[in-house]
Amino acid sequence: MLRGECWCWDNLTDYYPEVEPQKFSLPSPLPKWPQGKGFGTGRICLGEIEVVQITKFKKIWDCSPSFGKSDCVSFYKPDGIPKGYYMLGHYCQPDGEHLTGYVLAAKDFSADQNSALKLPALQKPLNYTLIWSSDSQYNGSGYIWMPNAPVGYKSIGFLASVEPNEPDPDEVRCVRADLTEKCEASEMMFSSDSFFPRNQFQVWKTRPCKRGMLCAGVSVGTFFCSTSFSSGDELDVACLKNLDSSLHAMPSFDQIHALIKHYGPTVYLHPDEIYLPSSVPWFFMNGALLYKDGKNNGTFINSKGSNLPAGGVNDGKYWLDLPNNDDANRTNVKCGNIESAELYVHVKPALGGTSTDIAMWIFCPFNGPATVKIGLLSFALNKVGEHVGDWEHYTLRVSNFSGELWSVYFSEHSGGEWVNGCDLEFIEGNKSIVYASRNGHASFPHPGCYLQGSTKLGVGVRNDCARSKYYVDSSTKYQLVAAEYLGEGVVAEPPWLQYMREWGPTMMYDGRSEMERIIKHLPFFMRFSVESLIELFPTELYGEAGPTGPKEKDNWLGDERC
Fold it and tell me: One short Pfam family name for this protein (predicted)?
């Protein structure tokens, strides 16, 4: 255990007026969802334990590095836990934000499941280990405790206190090891390194190590802290595991449509966008061709894509391309058809079936050339960045306890990010806005210029986003294409979804000559060598295989890439 030096662990208000953060609420009340099974009922059975989601908290204390209020975190105790349920750990989040998180509380169901030979699902800790304390002569003290689980059990979270005495063992519960899964540190919320490198203290959010629609790990919402944690270390705490394979808390078919109609974002294209989205059938009916390796001529594709090769893997033997009969038609298809455009929706379990991910895919027949930014100067490239067939997506994550929208994932080039509900831009009710970048169609939460490259040097590819007359309302213009958990045949997958090959030919670009052209226009003091400039840009700009469809993406089965 380490003791902090010259820290302010603020549990008094002598120096700073205490302002309790407000819980974030969506702009509009939630509707009454259509009848289903366990979705939106407030409780989820994970097998031998049942959990509820707690979103009300009482503040314990916060840390104020160097006697300031910036870069602080606060620790909270869950409030209003129903009778018969037990806390698994405390909650922590950065200061200066709305309260947006949750923790789970658990109830032992093992006694009701004829499990006399098994240990109880929940058990008190034996005692606690003090992980960190800060005795401040200026403004109080704070302590963080690790529950020591009995043999065969796992601790799920840490406890915070303002007293030097160990918390009461009855205050928290540990969980039987076979009902848990390994978790990992995800986002760091606080680190003392900048202030006191010798007394390292870090606080992290946690998440299940294995995530995706086939994974059982359940995020509990508690935090992890350590004085000696290194990346790759195994955590002392665990997450929960959903052993109920029925996924009874997932939304029904009717509830899915209700969720999309209530939350479906509006996708705005840039005012100067040339390469607009279209529906997949429009792309096929307007002359898109299927090519096979070794054959010069392409084959027309019917509107449903039922004559495309289905299944298998992307072996490089097939690809799609624009029509080649005349330049006018080719240009017409390149520019898309926003009137026909719709979002293709894949609904899947997340976090062990305690959340629902609604992945919404948009198709553009063509991805336009990139624009690069060097300092205050911007240069439109001629060909670099172009490719046929562009699939982009964003994902809504909804709590299966309440049906509340928690966050939206924005798929950006070379990655993406989850944005909490409080940081979204809403256009109507609880419907948010997704901005698609000019030419590249990557999704972003707000208008502006997002740089893909070196933000420190101000060198990279521009992703420009703004509202315009070009938009698609995904709450009305969508097609549900997959929800595997509902069972076979409930959702009819379109034939084109089974096409696992490339939606465009492989394209190579003369990036060196494009960079040389840019360098000639730069002031002498700004000139980079060609090699140095090329290294700053994403590698896909200089050559790109045709993109694959939604089912070939890692996030079809797995979690989103951050």
Answer: Vps62
137 CB-near residues (< 8 Å, 6+ apart):
none
**Do 153 and 178 contact (CB within 8 A), yes or no?**
no
Q: What is the mean pLDDT of residues 275-280?
A: 98
Q: Where are the domains of the chain?
A: 42-241, 253-556
**For residue range 472-489, what is the model confidence (pLDDT) as tens digits?**
999 999 999 999 999 999
Angle at 245 between CA 243 and CA 247, to 5 degrees: 110
- Residue closest to 486 by CA, chosen among 218, 213, 217, 264: 213
Q: What is the pLDDT of residue 454?
A: 80
CA distance 355 to 21: 25
- Rounded Cα distance, 413 and 440, in Å: 8
Q: What is the mean pLDDT of the chain?
A: 89
Residues in the chain: 562
Average pLDDT over residues 220-239: 89
Q: Is 8:381 a contact under the CB 8 Å cutoff?
A: no
Report residue 333: phi and psi, to 5°.
-70, -40
Does an H or E element contain 534, and which? helix 530-536
DSSP 548: B
C-alpha 443/C-alpha 419 separation (Å) is 12
